[in-house]
Amino acid sequence: MQEESASPSARPFDPGCPLTRDTEQGEDRAGRAAVDFPVAVVLPAGGCGERMGLPTPKQFCPILNRPLISYTIQAFERLSWIGTIVVVVAKENQDLMLNIVQTFNHTKVKVVNGGTTRHRSIFNGLQVLSNNTDDALTTKPKVVIIHDAVRPFVEESLLLKITLAAKEEGASGAIRPLVSTVIATTLEGYLDHSLERAKYRASEMPQGFLYDIIFQAYQRCSEYDFDFGTECLHLALQYCGTNAKLIEGPPALWKVTYKRDLAAAEAIIKETLATSACVITEAAAEAVELAGALQKNLATQSMMVTDIITCTKESNTDFLSKTSNFIQITVNGLNTSGLLEMVKHFEDTGHACLYPVVVVWVQLNVTKRSFDTQKTDELTSFRRLASEIKQGNVLLYGIHIDHTEVSEQWERSVARLADITGALIRDRNPALIGQLLHA
User: Fold this and answer.
1) Sign of CA dihedral 180, 59, 43, 27
2) pLDDT reading at 48 higher than 90
3) Which residues contact 172 (CB under 8 A, 6 or more apart)?
4) Which helix (H) or strand (E) holds 402?
5) Cross-strand bridge partners of residue 176
6) Measured CA angle at 128 (ends 123, 133), to 5 deg
């Protein structure tokens, strides 16, 4: 069977991206109501990524300046009903993993040294959870979820189904329809027979187990299983007689296997981040007019403007946590104080820690001064500011637009502004940081 390759069209409902506060609380309440027992996760991440063809193991490859495994961790860590995430890595990568945990503020993670094979690594992770210590992260769970470190897109609804089924049945696992027909070949390389695809399914991750069952299965399994086995559900069935409940998973369960999959994963994350933006504008009538027109134009690109905030309301910073994209409109100049206040808020709250925040500064020119005669020191100041705040994972772009009373010309300029703004937010291109474009 050929492995399913990633496709940006298989976009998950939520790839672990920041949620609004109301949505996050709603998910927490649903999870806590359904899961009233301890749950842990084991992420085997000791692979070397041979099929990727890169010197760096795929779980540590960066996407938007953040390792892939961090996205997978966050998909679990954001759920309040999951207590511990055990990440099992090769000994030579332990320091790297600990640094990732610290850099991206992962608070539920326990890092463990892996074994020589996948099953040995999983068993190492399970053994840590069997220890009776005072460490809250090594408390024995009722249910343990086993998941691939390179499958960053997993939805809470599926995790709930897997967890509850594991508690009731002892074991559960996600499945997907086969993409390709499975065939058997002769020793000479000819077709022997093929399987009827409709009767079979691909076994996927996540998989869930009662902790006592999967731990006992690993204690009983053979050295051959440890060295050559890949299927945890089979171990539970063979050594504990526990037949798993199988649950159909969404297309987003694909895993990053090949180099092209990294680009697909990045495209999915960027697409999800670009669904909304907040407009911050000065109180001048022309700026407020531009904000409203920009909102309508961005809507045609399926980008929702969550708020239009005037300077008189900037003391309220609640809106800064609702999105990762901001459009700041100033009139006849650069308002650096407002930008710096935003950046400080992002630093204090960690809002830009996991995902790069985009700020598009729109300079609305209502004077007769032309774009070409823009003061050199003003442009230099803008570029210097963009370079400084980039260190805090804030990407600053600039767009200049001239106000005009000619309605048709103004509409064309606003449409261009929306197109450029939307492209900057979607692409998050580092090469354009600090550039001042003209709409």
Assistant:
1) negative
2) no
3) 161, 162, 163, 165, 166, 207, 208, 209, 244, 245, 246, 247
4) strand 394-402
5) 202
6) 160
Percent of the chain past pLDDT 70, that is, above it, reads: 87
Number of residues that make up the chain: 439
DSSP letters of 171-194? Answer: EEEEEEE-SS--EEE-TTS-EEEE
Q: For residues 281 and 290, is the Cβ–Cβ distance under 8 A?
A: yes
The model's pTM: 0.87
- Convert the pLDDT of each residue in 309-328 to its tens digit: 987 554 567 888 889 999 99
Letter for the amino acid at 85?
I
- DSSP H helical segments within 331-406, as ranges? 336-349, 376-390
If you search the block for the tokens 């002769």, which residue do you land on? Answer: 186
Q: How is residue 193 written in tokens?
A: 């027979």
Q: Classify the C-alpha dihedral 171-101-352-274 as positive or negative.
A: negative
17 in Cβ contact with 272 (< 8 Å): yes
Comparing CA positions, the residue from 346, 349, 354, 331 lying closest to residue 280 is: 331
Whole-angstrom CA distances from 335 to 36, 311, 332, 345, 383 are 50, 11, 9, 16, 14
Give the C-alpha separation, 272 to 266, whole Å: 10
Long-range contacts of 338-345 (CB under 8 A, 24+ apart): 338/280, 338/311, 338/314, 339/385, 339/389, 339/396, 340/385, 341/314, 342/280, 342/394, 343/389, 343/392, 343/394, 345/317, 345/320
Distance CA 69, CA 265 (A): 12
Q: Are 439 and 400 in contact (CB under 8 A)?
A: yes
**222-249 pLDDT, tens per residue?**
999 999 988 999 999 999 999 999 999 9
**Type of residue at 401:** I
375 by Cβ neighbours in 10 Å (0-12 / 13-18 / 19+) ranks as exposed
Instruction: Give which of 341, 277, 345, 349 is closest to 307, Cα–Cα.
Output: 277
